[in-house]
Amino acid sequence: MARLLRPETVSQALRLLADGEVGTKLVAGGTAVMLMMRAGLLFPERLVALEHVADLDYVEVEPDAVRLGALTRLRDLERSVPLASALPTLARAIGFVANHRVRNRATIGGCLSEADYASDPPAVLASLGARVRLRSVRGEREVPVTDFLVGYYETVLEHDELLTEVVIPRPGPRVRTTYLKYVSRSAEDRPCVGVAAYVDADESGRTEEVRVAVGAATANPFMLGDVAQMLGGGPLDAGACRAVGEAYERAIEPIGDVRGSSDYRRKVTGRLVARALETTALSGHGNGAFRL
Amino acid sequence: MTALHEVPAEGGGGDVKVPDADGRVPVVLLVNGAPHRVHVRTTEVLLDVLREDLKLVGARNGCGVGMCGACTILRDGRAVSSCLTLAVLCEGADLRTIEGLRGGGGEGGEGGEGGGLSRVQRAFLEHRAFQCSYCTSGFILALEALLAVDSHPTEAAVREAFSGHLCRCGSYSRIMAAARQAAGLPSRGGLARGAVTGGVTGCAPDEEPGR
Predict the structure, then answer these.
(1) What are phi and psi of A197, to 5 degrees?
(2) Which among B16, B65, B210 is the nearest to A35, CB-wise?
Protein backbone atom coordinates (compact mmCIF):
# COMPACT_ATOMS: atom_id res chain seq x y z
CA MET A 1 0.00 0.00 0.00
CA ALA A 2 1.29 3.38 -0.98
CA ARG A 3 2.89 5.74 1.45
CA LEU A 4 1.65 9.29 1.20
CA LEU A 5 3.88 12.32 1.30
CA ARG A 6 2.68 15.87 1.39
CA PRO A 7 5.42 18.41 0.77
CA GLU A 8 4.51 22.02 1.38
CA THR A 9 7.10 23.78 -0.72
CA VAL A 10 8.56 23.20 -4.16
CA SER A 11 11.99 22.53 -2.69
CA GLN A 12 10.59 19.90 -0.33
CA ALA A 13 8.91 18.24 -3.29
CA LEU A 14 12.12 18.35 -5.33
CA ARG A 15 14.14 16.84 -2.47
CA LEU A 16 11.64 14.00 -2.26
CA LEU A 17 11.90 13.33 -5.98
CA ALA A 18 15.69 13.51 -5.88
CA ASP A 19 16.08 10.23 -3.99
CA GLY A 20 15.02 8.39 -7.12
CA GLU A 21 12.79 5.91 -5.31
CA VAL A 22 11.07 3.60 -7.76
CA GLY A 23 7.27 3.63 -7.74
CA THR A 24 6.93 7.31 -6.86
CA LYS A 25 3.97 9.10 -8.41
CA LEU A 26 3.18 12.78 -8.22
CA VAL A 27 -0.44 13.70 -7.73
CA ALA A 28 -1.80 17.24 -8.14
CA GLY A 29 -5.55 17.50 -8.81
CA GLY A 30 -5.62 13.73 -8.87
CA THR A 31 -8.23 13.26 -11.57
CA ALA A 32 -5.86 11.58 -14.04
CA VAL A 33 -3.96 9.62 -11.41
CA MET A 34 -7.22 8.32 -9.94
CA LEU A 35 -8.46 7.22 -13.35
CA MET A 36 -5.25 5.30 -13.96
CA MET A 37 -5.27 3.74 -10.50
CA ARG A 38 -8.88 2.69 -10.93
CA ALA A 39 -8.12 1.23 -14.33
CA GLY A 40 -5.35 -0.84 -12.75
CA LEU A 41 -2.67 0.89 -14.80
CA LEU A 42 -0.86 2.48 -11.90
CA PHE A 43 0.31 0.94 -8.62
CA PRO A 44 2.31 3.65 -6.89
CA GLU A 45 4.35 2.71 -3.84
CA ARG A 46 4.78 6.31 -2.88
CA LEU A 47 2.34 9.10 -3.64
CA VAL A 48 3.72 12.61 -3.47
CA ALA A 49 0.68 14.85 -3.15
CA LEU A 50 1.20 18.42 -4.33
CA GLU A 51 -2.08 19.68 -2.86
CA HIS A 52 -0.36 21.77 -0.21
CA VAL A 53 2.64 22.97 -2.18
CA ALA A 54 2.51 26.73 -1.95
CA ASP A 55 3.15 29.37 -4.58
CA LEU A 56 2.40 27.43 -7.76
CA ASP A 57 -1.14 28.74 -8.19
CA TYR A 58 -1.06 31.92 -10.24
CA VAL A 59 -1.69 33.69 -13.54
CA GLU A 60 0.85 36.41 -14.23
CA VAL A 61 0.35 38.57 -17.29
CA GLU A 62 3.58 40.31 -18.25
CA PRO A 63 4.22 42.52 -21.29
CA ASP A 64 5.88 39.71 -23.24
CA ALA A 65 4.56 36.54 -21.69
CA VAL A 66 1.84 34.97 -19.59
CA ARG A 67 3.00 32.70 -16.80
CA LEU A 68 0.77 30.03 -15.34
CA GLY A 69 1.69 28.31 -12.09
CA ALA A 70 1.62 24.55 -12.61
CA LEU A 71 -0.84 23.95 -9.77
CA THR A 72 -3.40 26.44 -11.07
CA ARG A 73 -6.69 24.63 -11.52
CA LEU A 74 -8.25 24.53 -14.97
CA ARG A 75 -11.43 26.07 -13.59
CA ASP A 76 -9.49 29.06 -12.28
CA LEU A 77 -7.71 29.50 -15.61
CA GLU A 78 -10.95 29.28 -17.52
CA ARG A 79 -12.44 32.00 -15.31
CA SER A 80 -9.34 34.16 -15.00
CA VAL A 81 -10.15 37.63 -16.33
CA PRO A 82 -6.47 38.49 -16.99
CA LEU A 83 -5.98 35.24 -18.90
CA ALA A 84 -9.19 35.70 -20.88
CA SER A 85 -8.10 39.14 -21.99
CA ALA A 86 -4.48 38.18 -22.78
CA LEU A 87 -5.10 34.75 -24.32
CA PRO A 88 -8.85 34.33 -24.90
CA THR A 89 -8.54 31.26 -27.09
CA LEU A 90 -6.53 29.41 -24.46
CA ALA A 91 -8.88 30.36 -21.62
CA ARG A 92 -11.89 29.22 -23.61
CA ALA A 93 -10.25 25.97 -24.74
CA ILE A 94 -9.34 25.11 -21.15
CA GLY A 95 -13.06 25.44 -20.38
CA PHE A 96 -13.69 22.65 -22.88
CA VAL A 97 -11.81 20.05 -20.82
CA ALA A 98 -14.09 17.35 -19.38
CA ASN A 99 -16.68 18.91 -17.05
CA HIS A 100 -16.74 21.50 -14.27
CA ARG A 101 -16.07 18.92 -11.55
CA VAL A 102 -12.90 17.71 -13.22
CA ARG A 103 -11.79 21.27 -13.99
CA ASN A 104 -12.39 22.18 -10.34
CA ARG A 105 -9.58 19.75 -9.45
CA ALA A 106 -7.32 19.25 -12.47
CA THR A 107 -4.28 21.51 -12.79
CA ILE A 108 -2.53 22.79 -15.91
CA GLY A 109 0.77 21.22 -14.85
CA GLY A 110 -0.92 17.88 -14.24
CA CYS A 111 -2.73 18.10 -17.54
CA LEU A 112 0.55 18.50 -19.43
CA SER A 113 2.55 16.05 -17.34
CA GLU A 114 -0.05 13.35 -17.86
CA ALA A 115 0.50 13.86 -21.61
CA ASP A 116 -2.83 12.43 -22.64
CA TYR A 117 -3.08 12.83 -26.39
CA ALA A 118 -6.88 13.30 -26.25
CA SER A 119 -6.76 16.66 -24.53
CA ASP A 120 -7.52 20.25 -25.55
CA PRO A 121 -4.83 22.46 -23.95
CA PRO A 122 -1.72 20.88 -25.55
CA ALA A 123 -2.64 21.81 -29.14
CA VAL A 124 -3.49 25.40 -28.18
CA LEU A 125 -0.30 25.76 -26.15
CA ALA A 126 1.73 24.28 -29.01
CA SER A 127 0.26 26.75 -31.51
CA LEU A 128 1.06 29.62 -29.15
CA GLY A 129 4.69 28.54 -28.83
CA ALA A 130 4.35 27.88 -25.10
CA ARG A 131 7.19 26.51 -22.99
CA VAL A 132 7.24 24.61 -19.72
CA ARG A 133 9.65 25.16 -16.88
CA LEU A 134 11.02 21.98 -15.33
CA ARG A 135 12.77 22.09 -11.98
CA SER A 136 14.84 19.59 -10.04
CA VAL A 137 17.46 19.78 -7.32
CA ARG A 138 19.98 19.82 -10.18
CA GLY A 139 18.59 23.05 -11.56
CA GLU A 140 15.95 24.07 -14.03
CA ARG A 141 15.32 24.14 -17.76
CA GLU A 142 12.70 25.49 -20.13
CA VAL A 143 11.38 23.25 -22.88
CA PRO A 144 8.89 24.09 -25.65
CA VAL A 145 5.61 22.24 -25.16
CA THR A 146 6.15 20.64 -28.56
CA ASP A 147 9.40 19.06 -27.29
CA PHE A 148 8.02 18.32 -23.84
CA LEU A 149 5.32 15.98 -25.13
CA VAL A 150 7.12 13.13 -26.86
CA GLY A 151 4.62 10.28 -27.04
CA TYR A 152 1.41 8.79 -25.74
CA TYR A 153 1.49 9.62 -22.02
CA GLU A 154 5.21 10.36 -22.39
CA THR A 155 7.13 13.53 -21.66
CA VAL A 156 10.79 14.47 -21.33
CA LEU A 157 10.38 14.87 -17.55
CA GLU A 158 13.21 13.14 -15.71
CA HIS A 159 12.26 11.24 -12.56
CA ASP A 160 13.52 14.02 -10.33
CA GLU A 161 11.86 16.84 -12.26
CA LEU A 162 8.70 18.79 -11.55
CA LEU A 163 6.84 20.96 -14.05
CA THR A 164 6.48 24.23 -12.18
CA GLU A 165 5.33 26.79 -14.75
CA VAL A 166 3.89 27.23 -18.22
CA VAL A 167 5.23 30.26 -20.10
CA ILE A 168 3.27 31.54 -23.08
CA PRO A 169 4.68 34.31 -25.27
CA ARG A 170 2.07 37.01 -25.81
CA PRO A 171 1.05 37.24 -29.45
CA GLY A 172 1.35 40.61 -31.14
CA PRO A 173 -1.77 42.73 -31.71
CA ARG A 174 -2.17 41.51 -35.31
CA VAL A 175 -2.27 37.86 -34.36
CA ARG A 176 -5.56 35.98 -34.47
CA THR A 177 -6.00 32.57 -32.89
CA THR A 178 -8.74 29.95 -32.97
CA TYR A 179 -9.31 26.55 -31.46
CA LEU A 180 -11.88 24.20 -32.94
CA LYS A 181 -12.79 21.15 -30.91
CA TYR A 182 -14.54 18.41 -32.77
CA VAL A 183 -16.27 15.81 -30.60
CA SER A 184 -17.68 12.62 -32.07
CA ARG A 185 -19.61 11.16 -29.12
CA SER A 186 -20.97 13.68 -26.61
CA ALA A 187 -20.66 17.38 -25.89
CA GLU A 188 -18.19 17.00 -23.03
CA ASP A 189 -16.19 14.14 -24.51
CA ARG A 190 -12.49 14.43 -25.09
CA PRO A 191 -11.71 15.76 -28.55
CA CYS A 192 -11.79 13.44 -31.54
CA VAL A 193 -9.69 16.08 -33.27
CA GLY A 194 -8.83 19.56 -32.05
CA VAL A 195 -7.21 22.20 -34.25
CA ALA A 196 -5.48 25.33 -32.98
CA ALA A 197 -4.61 28.01 -35.52
CA TYR A 198 -2.36 31.05 -35.12
CA VAL A 199 -2.31 33.61 -37.91
CA ASP A 200 -0.17 36.71 -38.09
CA ALA A 201 -1.15 38.71 -41.17
CA ASP A 202 -1.01 42.39 -42.11
CA GLU A 203 -4.01 44.49 -43.17
CA SER A 204 -3.67 43.43 -46.78
CA GLY A 205 -3.90 39.80 -45.67
CA ARG A 206 -0.28 38.90 -46.38
CA THR A 207 0.71 36.22 -43.91
CA GLU A 208 3.83 36.62 -41.83
CA GLU A 209 3.45 33.57 -39.65
CA VAL A 210 0.89 30.79 -39.65
CA ARG A 211 0.93 27.90 -37.20
CA VAL A 212 -1.54 25.07 -37.06
CA ALA A 213 -1.45 22.41 -34.35
CA VAL A 214 -3.65 19.34 -34.57
CA GLY A 215 -4.43 17.77 -31.21
CA ALA A 216 -5.90 14.42 -30.13
CA ALA A 217 -5.13 12.74 -33.44
CA THR A 218 -1.50 11.80 -32.84
CA ALA A 219 0.78 11.13 -29.88
CA ASN A 220 1.51 14.82 -29.48
CA PRO A 221 0.27 17.97 -31.23
CA PHE A 222 0.93 17.61 -34.94
CA MET A 223 2.35 20.65 -36.70
CA LEU A 224 3.71 21.22 -40.18
CA GLY A 225 6.59 23.65 -39.91
CA ASP A 226 6.23 25.49 -43.16
CA VAL A 227 2.64 26.65 -43.43
CA ALA A 228 3.54 30.27 -44.15
CA GLN A 229 6.07 29.06 -46.71
CA MET A 230 3.38 26.88 -48.26
CA LEU A 231 1.35 30.06 -48.71
CA GLY A 232 4.35 31.93 -50.09
CA GLY A 233 3.43 34.94 -47.99
CA GLY A 234 0.23 35.19 -50.01
CA PRO A 235 -3.15 35.91 -48.51
CA LEU A 236 -5.01 33.28 -46.55
CA ASP A 237 -8.05 33.07 -48.82
CA ALA A 238 -10.51 30.22 -48.96
CA GLY A 239 -8.39 28.33 -51.51
CA ALA A 240 -5.26 28.68 -49.42
CA CYS A 241 -7.07 27.48 -46.28
CA ARG A 242 -8.23 24.43 -48.19
CA ALA A 243 -4.74 23.78 -49.52
CA VAL A 244 -3.25 23.84 -46.04
CA GLY A 245 -6.00 21.50 -44.85
CA GLU A 246 -5.17 19.11 -47.66
CA ALA A 247 -1.48 19.24 -46.79
CA TYR A 248 -2.29 18.29 -43.20
CA GLU A 249 -4.61 15.56 -44.37
CA ARG A 250 -1.82 14.04 -46.48
CA ALA A 251 0.88 14.36 -43.84
CA ILE A 252 -0.85 13.26 -40.64
CA GLU A 253 -0.97 9.65 -39.49
CA PRO A 254 -3.70 9.65 -36.87
CA ILE A 255 -4.45 7.10 -34.18
CA GLY A 256 -7.67 5.10 -34.41
CA ASP A 257 -9.64 4.77 -31.18
CA VAL A 258 -13.22 4.88 -29.86
CA ARG A 259 -13.59 8.47 -31.05
CA GLY A 260 -12.84 7.65 -34.68
CA SER A 261 -10.76 5.45 -36.93
CA SER A 262 -7.46 6.63 -38.30
CA ASP A 263 -8.99 7.18 -41.72
CA TYR A 264 -11.91 9.14 -40.33
CA ARG A 265 -9.62 11.35 -38.27
CA ARG A 266 -7.44 12.03 -41.30
CA LYS A 267 -10.45 13.34 -43.23
CA VAL A 268 -11.71 15.33 -40.24
CA THR A 269 -8.25 16.84 -39.83
CA GLY A 270 -8.21 18.17 -43.41
CA ARG A 271 -11.61 19.84 -43.09
CA LEU A 272 -11.03 21.09 -39.57
CA VAL A 273 -7.66 22.66 -40.39
CA ALA A 274 -9.22 24.50 -43.34
CA ARG A 275 -12.13 25.66 -41.21
CA ALA A 276 -9.90 26.77 -38.34
CA LEU A 277 -7.85 28.89 -40.73
CA GLU A 278 -10.95 30.33 -42.38
CA THR A 279 -12.41 31.16 -38.99
CA THR A 280 -9.19 32.81 -37.89
CA ALA A 281 -8.43 34.76 -41.04
CA LEU A 282 -11.68 35.33 -42.82
CA SER A 283 -14.82 35.15 -40.75
CA GLY A 284 -14.14 37.81 -38.17
CA HIS A 285 -14.55 35.15 -35.51
CA GLY A 286 -10.84 35.28 -34.74
CA ASN A 287 -9.68 34.79 -31.15
CA GLY A 288 -12.08 32.24 -29.87
CA ALA A 289 -12.66 28.59 -29.31
CA PHE A 290 -15.59 26.65 -30.62
CA ARG A 291 -17.01 23.19 -30.08
CA LEU A 292 -18.29 21.38 -33.12
CA MET B 1 -3.08 21.69 8.46
CA THR B 2 -0.27 20.91 10.82
CA ALA B 3 2.71 19.46 9.06
CA LEU B 4 5.55 17.36 10.33
CA HIS B 5 8.61 19.22 9.23
CA GLU B 6 11.99 17.54 8.89
CA VAL B 7 11.15 13.91 8.44
CA PRO B 8 14.58 12.37 7.85
CA ALA B 9 13.27 9.03 6.57
CA GLU B 10 11.75 10.79 3.58
CA GLY B 11 14.56 13.15 2.82
CA GLY B 12 13.16 16.06 4.76
CA GLY B 13 10.10 18.19 4.58
CA GLY B 14 6.39 17.87 4.44
CA ASP B 15 3.92 15.57 6.07
CA VAL B 16 4.24 11.81 5.74
CA LYS B 17 1.62 9.14 6.25
CA VAL B 18 2.91 5.58 6.49
CA PRO B 19 0.27 2.86 6.21
CA ASP B 20 -0.21 0.42 9.10
CA ALA B 21 0.00 -3.36 8.66
CA ASP B 22 -3.50 -3.27 7.23
CA GLY B 23 -2.44 -0.70 4.64
CA ARG B 24 -4.43 2.08 6.27
CA VAL B 25 -3.63 5.56 7.48
CA PRO B 26 -5.57 7.72 9.95
CA VAL B 27 -7.33 10.69 8.41
CA VAL B 28 -9.62 13.33 9.84
CA LEU B 29 -12.29 14.35 7.37
CA LEU B 30 -14.45 17.41 7.91
CA VAL B 31 -17.82 16.34 6.51
CA ASN B 32 -20.90 18.55 6.77
CA GLY B 33 -19.18 20.58 9.44
CA ALA B 34 -18.24 17.68 11.72
CA PRO B 35 -14.80 16.05 11.98
CA HIS B 36 -14.67 12.29 11.40
CA ARG B 37 -11.63 10.18 12.21
CA VAL B 38 -11.35 7.30 9.77
CA HIS B 39 -8.69 4.79 8.77
CA VAL B 40 -8.47 4.59 5.01
CA ARG B 41 -6.28 2.89 2.47
CA THR B 42 -4.15 5.44 0.67
CA THR B 43 -5.72 4.43 -2.62
CA GLU B 44 -9.30 4.63 -1.35
CA VAL B 45 -11.65 7.10 -3.02
CA LEU B 46 -13.70 9.54 -0.98
CA LEU B 47 -16.97 8.16 -2.36
CA ASP B 48 -16.34 4.76 -0.76
CA VAL B 49 -15.33 6.30 2.56
CA LEU B 50 -18.45 8.49 2.63
CA ARG B 51 -20.77 5.64 1.82
CA GLU B 52 -19.15 2.77 3.72
CA ASP B 53 -17.40 4.34 6.70
CA LEU B 54 -19.60 7.36 7.31
CA LYS B 55 -22.86 5.85 5.99
CA LEU B 56 -23.59 8.97 3.97
CA VAL B 57 -25.15 7.45 0.89
CA GLY B 58 -26.40 10.60 -0.84
CA ALA B 59 -23.40 10.52 -3.16
CA ARG B 60 -23.93 7.64 -5.57
CA ASN B 61 -21.56 5.45 -7.46
CA GLY B 62 -22.31 5.88 -11.14
CA CYS B 63 -19.69 5.74 -13.87
CA GLY B 64 -16.64 5.74 -11.61
CA VAL B 65 -14.71 7.95 -14.01
CA GLY B 66 -16.01 11.45 -13.28
CA MET B 67 -18.39 11.67 -16.22
CA CYS B 68 -21.89 11.14 -14.82
CA GLY B 69 -22.05 13.40 -11.78
CA ALA B 70 -23.86 10.96 -9.47
CA CYS B 71 -21.06 11.09 -6.87
CA THR B 72 -20.85 14.89 -6.77
CA ILE B 73 -19.98 16.50 -3.45
CA LEU B 74 -18.80 19.99 -2.54
CA ARG B 75 -15.17 20.40 -1.66
CA ASP B 76 -14.42 23.86 -0.27
CA GLY B 77 -17.63 24.95 -1.96
CA ARG B 78 -16.78 23.56 -5.37
CA ALA B 79 -18.45 20.60 -7.02
CA VAL B 80 -16.10 17.64 -7.45
CA SER B 81 -16.45 13.98 -8.30
CA SER B 82 -15.91 12.01 -5.09
CA CYS B 83 -15.14 8.93 -7.21
CA LEU B 84 -12.02 10.67 -8.50
CA THR B 85 -10.94 12.05 -5.13
CA LEU B 86 -8.49 10.24 -2.90
CA ALA B 87 -9.83 10.31 0.65
CA VAL B 88 -6.37 10.81 2.14
CA LEU B 89 -6.01 14.02 0.16
CA CYS B 90 -9.13 15.54 1.70
CA GLU B 91 -7.72 16.30 5.11
CA GLY B 92 -8.24 19.96 5.85
CA ALA B 93 -10.91 20.36 3.17
CA ASP B 94 -14.48 21.41 3.92
CA LEU B 95 -16.52 18.52 2.50
CA ARG B 96 -20.25 18.78 2.07
CA THR B 97 -22.68 16.13 0.89
CA ILE B 98 -26.37 16.36 0.10
CA GLU B 99 -27.02 15.33 3.72
CA GLY B 100 -25.35 18.54 4.83
CA LEU B 101 -27.72 20.88 2.99
CA ARG B 102 -30.05 22.91 5.16
CA GLY B 103 -32.72 25.46 4.54
CA GLY B 104 -31.26 28.92 4.57
CA GLY B 105 -32.06 32.55 3.92
CA GLY B 106 -35.07 32.44 6.26
CA GLU B 107 -37.01 30.31 3.81
CA GLY B 108 -36.21 26.83 5.02
CA GLY B 109 -37.15 24.93 8.10
CA GLU B 110 -40.74 26.06 8.17
CA GLY B 111 -41.89 22.53 8.90
CA GLY B 112 -44.26 20.32 6.98
CA GLU B 113 -43.33 18.97 3.61
CA GLY B 114 -40.03 20.37 2.42
CA GLY B 115 -39.20 21.77 5.85
CA GLY B 116 -35.48 22.10 6.51
CA LEU B 117 -34.65 21.57 2.89
CA SER B 118 -32.68 24.06 0.87
CA ARG B 119 -34.29 26.29 -1.72
CA VAL B 120 -32.84 24.10 -4.47
CA GLN B 121 -34.07 20.89 -2.85
CA ARG B 122 -37.57 22.32 -2.48
CA ALA B 123 -37.62 23.42 -6.11
CA PHE B 124 -36.65 19.90 -7.20
CA LEU B 125 -39.47 18.47 -5.08
CA GLU B 126 -42.03 20.94 -6.37
CA HIS B 127 -41.16 20.23 -9.97
CA ARG B 128 -40.75 16.49 -9.35
CA ALA B 129 -37.43 16.86 -11.11
CA PHE B 130 -36.53 13.18 -10.97
CA GLN B 131 -37.83 9.72 -11.54
CA CYS B 132 -35.41 7.24 -9.99
CA SER B 133 -33.48 10.09 -8.25
CA TYR B 134 -30.07 8.45 -8.61
CA CYS B 135 -28.64 11.59 -10.22
CA THR B 136 -30.56 14.09 -8.10
CA SER B 137 -28.06 14.84 -5.34
CA GLY B 138 -25.44 15.57 -8.00
CA PHE B 139 -27.67 18.02 -9.87
CA ILE B 140 -28.68 19.72 -6.64
CA LEU B 141 -25.12 20.14 -5.40
CA ALA B 142 -23.98 21.42 -8.79
CA LEU B 143 -26.64 24.11 -8.62
CA GLU B 144 -25.89 24.89 -4.96
CA ALA B 145 -22.22 25.40 -5.90
CA LEU B 146 -23.21 27.77 -8.68
CA LEU B 147 -25.68 29.76 -6.58
CA ALA B 148 -23.10 30.14 -3.83
CA VAL B 149 -20.87 32.18 -6.16
CA ASP B 150 -23.54 33.62 -8.46
CA SER B 151 -26.93 34.22 -6.87
CA HIS B 152 -28.50 35.37 -10.16
CA PRO B 153 -27.02 33.08 -12.80
CA THR B 154 -28.05 33.11 -16.42
CA GLU B 155 -29.68 30.04 -17.88
CA ALA B 156 -26.46 29.40 -19.80
CA ALA B 157 -24.54 29.37 -16.51
CA VAL B 158 -27.02 26.87 -15.05
CA ARG B 159 -26.63 24.61 -18.05
CA GLU B 160 -22.88 24.92 -17.81
CA ALA B 161 -23.02 23.92 -14.14
CA PHE B 162 -25.06 20.88 -15.16
CA SER B 163 -22.58 19.78 -17.80
CA GLY B 164 -21.32 16.34 -16.98
CA HIS B 165 -24.45 15.46 -15.01
CA LEU B 166 -26.40 12.65 -16.62
CA CYS B 167 -30.00 11.76 -15.88
CA ARG B 168 -30.70 8.38 -17.41
CA CYS B 169 -34.46 8.77 -16.81
CA GLY B 170 -34.37 11.86 -19.00
CA SER B 171 -35.90 14.27 -16.50
CA TYR B 172 -33.87 17.14 -17.88
CA SER B 173 -36.79 19.43 -18.67
CA ARG B 174 -38.13 19.10 -15.13
CA ILE B 175 -34.64 19.54 -13.73
CA MET B 176 -34.26 22.75 -15.72
CA ALA B 177 -37.68 23.95 -14.57
CA ALA B 178 -36.66 23.37 -10.94
CA ALA B 179 -33.33 25.03 -11.54
CA ARG B 180 -34.96 28.07 -13.13
CA GLN B 181 -37.16 28.45 -10.08
CA ALA B 182 -34.29 28.07 -7.63
CA ALA B 183 -32.13 30.46 -9.63
CA GLY B 184 -34.90 33.05 -9.96
CA LEU B 185 -35.04 32.73 -13.74
CA PRO B 186 -38.32 33.15 -15.60
CA SER B 187 -40.17 29.89 -15.97
CA ARG B 188 -40.94 28.65 -19.42
CA GLY B 189 -44.21 27.07 -18.40
CA GLY B 190 -44.79 23.33 -18.24
CA LEU B 191 -42.25 21.14 -19.89
CA ALA B 192 -40.20 23.84 -21.48
CA ARG B 193 -39.46 23.45 -25.11
CA GLY B 194 -35.75 23.33 -25.79
CA ALA B 195 -34.83 22.33 -22.27
CA VAL B 196 -33.66 18.99 -23.54
CA THR B 197 -32.60 19.83 -27.06
CA GLY B 198 -30.36 22.64 -25.85
CA GLY B 199 -28.42 19.94 -24.11
CA VAL B 200 -28.36 20.04 -20.35
CA THR B 201 -25.29 17.86 -20.53
CA GLY B 202 -23.79 19.89 -23.30
CA CYS B 203 -23.65 23.40 -21.86
CA ALA B 204 -24.87 26.38 -23.71
CA PRO B 205 -24.71 25.83 -27.44
CA ASP B 206 -21.57 27.40 -28.77
CA GLU B 207 -21.51 29.69 -31.69
CA GLU B 208 -20.52 27.63 -34.64
CA PRO B 209 -18.36 29.39 -37.15
CA GLY B 210 -18.37 28.72 -40.84
CA ARG B 211 -21.80 27.20 -40.93
Answers:
(1) -120, 145
(2) B65
